[in-house]
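Cross-check.
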Amino acid sequence: MNYGRMLLQLLEGLSYSISIFCWTLFFSLPLGLLVALCRMSKFTVLKQLARFCISVLRGTPLMLQLFLVFYGPYYIFKMPLTDTYRFLAVIIGFSVNYAAYFAEIYRAGIEAIPLGQYEAAQVLGYSRTQTFFKIIVPQVVKRILPPVTNEVITLVKDTSLAFTLTIPEMFSVARQWSSARTTMIPLIAAGVFYYVFNFLVAMLMERFEKYLNYYR
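Predicted model, tokenized:
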């Protein structure tokens, strides 16, 4: 078996995995905050709609959601299924799914802030927007960092689900090599790559958490 070629293709697959990971975080983190604010809204319809969406997204498999995002437009609007949309469907599916989880984490962090923080900000003349972004958000970030880290690490492993839409990410490449050569070595190599990727992500998040220790 040509190990050099195998490692090269695994690295190419890893580039897809990293791309899915980065784009998912780029869209899901702010989208999660928006959904959390809707979930906490005083408007009953908006609040219940956000609650329902979160329930559906957390209660159904991510793989099923990827299929719906990719094949749904074809069956409903007769849109052609192109390779470009294939990758876009993966990003949409991952981003929406993880936004639901981040929304609940955000909500828990925001609701954990004592009411006195808002009252003190009002006394100091802060507007509601200033209070939220200058006083509440920095404290929320510190509180929610551990559960967000867990979700981020899970995302690294979940990128392997992109194989369901035939995206050539690392797990797909390893599985193809393993099947063709009837050996576990490609899968073991992929496992090592996933571990190193997760280790680096966890280390980065830990350093960020230590950086925020000045809020204590």
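The domain at 3-215 is CATH 1.10.3720.10 (MetI-like fold). The chain is about 80% helix and 0% strand. Passed to J.P. for a second look.
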